[in-house]
Amino acid sequence: MRASTLRVVITGFAWAALTLPAGAQAQNAPKIESLRGDVPVEATSNTDISNWEGDQHAIPRDFVQQPPLIPHSIKGYTVTKNFNKCMDCHSWSRYKEKGAVKISLTHFKDRDGNELSNLSPRRYFCLQCHVPQANTTPLVENTFKPVGALAK
Amino acid sequence: MSQQQNGSWLGRVWGWLKRIGPWTAIGLFAGGVIAWGGFNWSLELTNTERFCISCHEMQENVFKEYRNTVHYTNRTGVRATCPDCHVPREWVHKIVRKIQASNELWHHMLGSVDTPEKFNAKRLVLAQHEWDRMKKTDSRECRNCHGYDYMDYTEQGRRSSAQHIKGFSEGKTCIDCHQGIAHALPPIEQNIGAPKEQVTLSR
């Protein structure tokens, strides 16, 4: 056949090979639910988290690489292009005065591994990794126990 | 009749009053009340949130930012609207501010900040004006509602009570720390990434 037709046929086979087995597998996979439950993304979820924890002492980590949880209220704290409110207390220049934890040195590396002189752009949005806590029941009942350095 | 020397000021006023008669005098007084009341009423109309946001520069920029903050909506529903923070309550200070406000009318006419880009270009200058004003008056407008001496530190969180006690003992005023409480902050230099315009917050 012609080169262009052969290209289309091969692409078609590749697409089928990749998508069809995955489709079959998805039907047998266990049903995982998030906080949203069955509510599709376009609709409003009926999650009702309202009892956010206020100021407390540092929350122990569950695994060594865990980004520490935020042990205080972050109501009204915004991180924008103009101003990063988190860095107002957690930067190396202000943490002592504010009695806060300073951001880890790991936050100073850019994506090529170079050390920068302050917070790297890839770590600018704190809430992508660090979250506050709410006083609710666990999503899934569990008996998680940390291993290694944190095992009791 | 307590009439002093014929040419005295008081004597002439009393003479005039006697000439026009009591009803006219009362009528004049009532007219004065209505005139002053009308003046005050119109002035107070310019002291409302509705009036402030009738300018789209305010409505599109600072009002929308303020709607995400605690002074707009909160647990108890106690609010501070535009005049509560930006117009002094004491009469003399209020009138001075109102006269200064003609500058704002002027710039509204010129369209100095009538697009988001123009507004954000001037945000730093405008914010600094307000911060300077509040610093000069020891945050007078904040203290219309928030009394330092009546703060119950047992109700505040761990960090707030520590910071308030420390701040007040250092002689700080509200605006020294609570910049950005109601409207979005202009670019602040935090030494992260590319340099911004030189504003560091005065904390």
Q: Can you walk through the features of this model?
A:
The complex is a heterodimer of chains A (152) and B (203). Chain A has helices at residues 3-28, 87-90, 95-98. Chain A is an all-alpha fold. Chain A has a domain at 54-152: Flavocytochrome C3, Chain A, domain 2, CATH 1.10.1130. Chain A is extended. Chain B is mainly α and 203 residues long. Among the domains of chain B are: 46-146, no CATH class; 152-178, no CATH class.
Summary of the model, kept short:
Chain A has 152 residues and is mostly helical. Chain A contains three helices and no strands. With 203 residues, chain B is an all-alpha fold.
Would you spell out the secondary-structure blueprint of this structure?
The complex is a heterodimer of chains A (152) and B (203).
Chain A: H1 3-28, H2 87-90, H3 95-98
Chain B: H1 9-20, H2 22-45, H3 49-52, H4 56-66, H5 82-86, H6 91-100, H7 102-110, H8 116-136, H9 158-169, H10 174-177
The chain-level mean pLDDT of chain B equals 91
CATH architecture of the domain at 54-152 in chain A: Orthogonal Bundle
Poorly predicted regions of chain B: none
**Main β-sheet of chain A, in a few words?**
none
Q: Hey, roughly how much beta strand do the residues of chain A contain?
A: under 5%
Q: What is the highest CATH level, the class of the domain at 54-152 in chain A?
A: Mainly Alpha
DSSP summary, beta strand count of chain A:
0
Roughly how much helix do the residues of chain B carry, as a percent range? Answer: 55-70%
Key descriptive features of the protein:
heterodimer, A: 152 residues, mainly alpha, Flavocytochrome C3, Chain A, domain 2, B: 203 residues, 0% strand
